[in-house]
Specification:
By secondary structure, the chain is mostly helical. The protein has one domain. The chain has two helices and no strands. The radius of gyration is 21 Å and the shape is elongated.
Length: 93
């Protein structure tokens, strides 16, 4: 397996994971806050509170995932330094 392909797969995985981590809490908070504000006639109160809460949850989640993916990237880059069965011993490809 090519190391470039492994890096591209990791990049797509990170892109999808971070996108979902950022989008889901904010959209959910906006929809729930809007519904609560209409129900209780408290126009921007619940939207603002829930968006702040969603921001905090998102920040913590992104921080944890960044640490995790940093470790995955380091292990991937360390494993690519080792020669595989398909590498030419002279270093040529």
């Amino acid at each position: 397996m090519s190391t470039d392909a492994a890096y591209y797969r990791l990049a797509m995985r990170i892109f999808a994971d971070f996108g979902i981590t950022i989008a889901v809490p904010s959209v959910g908070a906006a929809l729930l806050g809007s519904w609560l504000d209409r129900r209780f006639a408290t126009e921007p109160r619940y939207v603002v509170i829930l968006l702040i809460l969603a921001f905090l949850i998102t920040a913590i989640s992104v921080y944890r995932k960044a640490i995790y993916y940093g470790r995955v990237f380091n292990s991937l880059s360390n494993s690519s330094d080792k020669p595989s069965l398909y590498d030419d011993p002279s270093g040529r490809r």
